[in-house]
Amino acid sequence: MRIIIERSNLLKALSHVHRVVERRNTIPILSNVLLKSEDGALRLKATDLDIEVTERVSAIDEQAGGTTVPAYLLYDIVRKLSDGAEVSLATSDDGGQLIVSSGRSRFRLQCLPEVDFPDITAGALSHSFSLSAGDLARLIERTQFAISTEETRYYLNGIYLHTIESEGDLRLRAVATDGHRLARAESVAPAGSEGMPGIIVPRKTVAELQKLISDAASDSMVAIELSEAKIRFTIGDVVITSKLIDGTFPDYQRVIPTGNDKALTLDRQSFAQAVDRVSTISSERGRAVKLAVSNGQLVLTVNSPDSGTATEELPVGYEADDIEIGFNARYLLDITGQLAGEEAVFMLADAGSPTLIRDGGDTGTLYVLMPMRV
């Protein structure tokens, strides 16, 4: 193999694919990135056996071939080369080394054979549709913070993606929960998503997808293909293929309260800043903030045995019976950080029941938050 490529193009492609490689691997080939020259382009591929990312980038293809080299090492080398430089990648005569040349710099990297590199064959993907990068980013951003990190409840370690009939329309809905809070976002279901199975996209795949979408224009289209076992996203020249979580997502509809009749309307930004201020003195373990709501007024209170007490008052819209309820401060900040509108609406029941939080600027999004004892 011998290929010449712009340093900036190679660095961008490596930055997309090398992130899925685990830094510690018991299987040496999984530490490597596959480089293959074909038809005037360089194809790069990396995998951890659960996720596979490939990207095709234009290059001067002088001799066809392929090899694999350590992903993080190659990324660091290319990152430190001069801006605007051309990079030559060529395998040695015996194929055991990759020679990386740019200007006066020259590196010889140990290779492993291309034939040993694993391939995640997606098999038949039963459903395919396209979604704008902006819509997909919104579904992910509104829900990913609520993904559980508890490995024993592995079926909560991702975003549940499914379609549902809502008020006569078919909606594509994303849901995540960790048992303490639940996040739900939705958009109009695109053509081709009808009848798709409900799937759980793993946390690591969600994180990689979020980074790739951030590099794409919001109006660009993302092609999505899926089956019950795998999903593939195509964003421009980047393709990410992932296994799905093999489990059953719980019936989240049962935990969304329907009888909460105490409506608390408040300014999202002022509330978030007040929560952040009063929680300064709380211990990291508890971080409980008490909300005392009466007619037109909200008092936030934090008591810390070690540090003291903090209170702050806010004017709010509230006309129901007085109520006192406690929440985890970090959870409140996570949710308010995702709201798009200037106002947030808290639908309360009592101090021991889950609270429903709606976004004044996005009717398709809602959050459920379990209270804390204070």
Automatic annotation (TrEMBL):
InterPro entries: DNA_clamp_sf, DNA_polIII_beta, DNA_polIII_beta_C, DNA_polIII_beta_cen, DNA_polIII_beta_N. Keywords: Cytoplasm, DNA replication, DNA-binding, DNA-directed DNA polymerase, Nucleotidyltransferase, Transferase. Residues 1-120 form the DNA polymerase III beta sliding clamp N-terminal domain. Its main location: cytoplasm. It comes from the Bacteria. Gene3D superfamilies: 3.70.10.10, DNA Polymerase III, subunit A, domain 2. Residues 133-251 form the DNA polymerase III beta sliding clamp central domain. Pfam families: DNA_pol3_beta, DNA_pol3_beta_2, DNA_pol3_beta_3. It is found in: Cytoplasm. Residues 254-373 form the DNA polymerase III beta sliding clamp C-terminal domain. Belongs to the beta sliding clamp family. Confers DNA tethering and processivity to DNA polymerases and other proteins. Acts as a clamp, forming a ring around DNA (a reaction catalyzed by the clamp-loading complex) which diffuses in an ATP-independent manner freely and bidirectionally along dsDNA. Initially characterized for its ability to contact the catalytic subunit of DNA polymerase III (Pol III), a complex, multichain enzyme responsible for most of the replicative synthesis in bacteria; Pol III exhibits 3'-5' exonuclease proofreading activity. Forms a ring-shaped head-to-tail homodimer around DNA. This is Beta sliding clamp. It comes from Aureimonas altamirensis DSM 21988.
